[in-house]
Amino acid sequence: MLSKKENLQKNNYYKLLENKLGFIFCELIEANDKQFKIGIIDADLLDQGTKHPNLALLKISGYCKEFRHSVKLICDYSEIADKLKEDIYDFLIMSKVFNFTKIPAVIQKRIDNKEIIIGGTGFYGMDSPDLPDKIEHHMPDYELYTDFISSQTDNFTKNVIRYEDYLNYSIGFTTRGCFRKCSYCVNRKYDRVIKHSPISEFLDPKRRGIYLWDDNFMASPDFYTILDALIATGKPFQFRQGLDIRLMTADKAERLAKVKYKGDFIFAFDHIEDAEKISNSLKIWKKYYKKSTKLYVLTGYDSQDERDIENTFERIKIIMEHGCLPYIMRYEDYKESKYKSMYIQLARWCNQPNFLKKKSFRQYCKANEEYHLTHTNIIKGYCSCYKAMIDFEMEFPEIAKKYYDLRFEEINQYKSK
Ligand code: SF4
User: Fold this and answer.
1) How many angstroms separate the CA atoms of 248 and 324, rounded?
2) Tens digit of each residue's pLDDT (9 = 90 or more) over 64-100
3) 178: Cβ below 6 Å to ligand 1?
4) Does residue 214 have its Cβ closer than 6 Å to ligand 1?
5) Contact 93, 43 (CB under 8 A)
6) Ligand 1 centre distance from Cα of residue 69 (Å)
């Protein structure tokens, strides 16, 4: 249990956190000869689940364990919702990455009462306070989620693949920041790309590969030295954010094409205004790299109308012409669109490469309708996919004429003859 003095310090910590300072927390953790009980809450995990561990929480856990405190991941809100149980923990620390993640009212009340330390972009957006340096640059505790995963996988015997990112990869940022300041991005607080962590800071040699969460690695002045350091680990690695293909040069393409990369290279094509630049960059890239390449296509952000659907189709077309695969990302405002169903169908068509490579958008929708007719008992009306396609075509025949029948095999300029 915390003493009176420590409680006072803790309360000060909450106030200081609001001023973006966290060093008093570090003072408490480091100076005390007691063993604190620290409960860690990954709000995104407890709401809808996530594919990745929360890196900030891994680092907080690693840091606290270094000073011999006991750390436990809270696997169910009921563990901390009950008044009688709340004193089990000296500190409760919660992080949330996504602003749409829901928190139960009883827990929110505890946050409002400053009984839980909170952090992360899901709470603060781009003003999210940075972790104190000592924590930010601490080796992540990759064991934090082990009990949780064990409980979800019947002691690592079922569905383990779902937790691959938690179990098999070292995770970190070799650089931070970006100069582009896209309006939808939480990285707008930076002006440039700076070196962040050496790989040794987060590399667990027992783990199979490395996942990098850099914001804009392609813009890093240390691009080549970091790449050399990654290659020297001998492990496959992958940048998880879409790489900025607008910054591709022949030198960068040649170097990247030779590395031991995990999975497909993924770039971003967010704005139709960049069409010419991205086409030129893809030409450079394809000269050096012949394997599969994906590009994220952001939709529903600039607008949610027929113009956005049209420019989504145009970006898909450019990507296919270069023998690459689009991956549709839907900004949440798409849900308010009159053409919501078109966004869904475009994502279903593009995000499953087997469909995209073999069928035009029209063929894909027709195949859905045929399946609907033969496999369901519902005889009234068209399936939602076919209906979205014909409704949009009736309203905008010119857009449909231009894009509905494009086939990957026919427009891919890089297909082997
Ligand atoms: S380029 Fe990427 S990292 Fe940079 S501001 Fe835009 S979305 Fe964010």
Assistant:
1) 16
2) 999 999 999 999 998 887 765 556 888 899 999 998 9
3) yes
4) no
5) no
6) 37
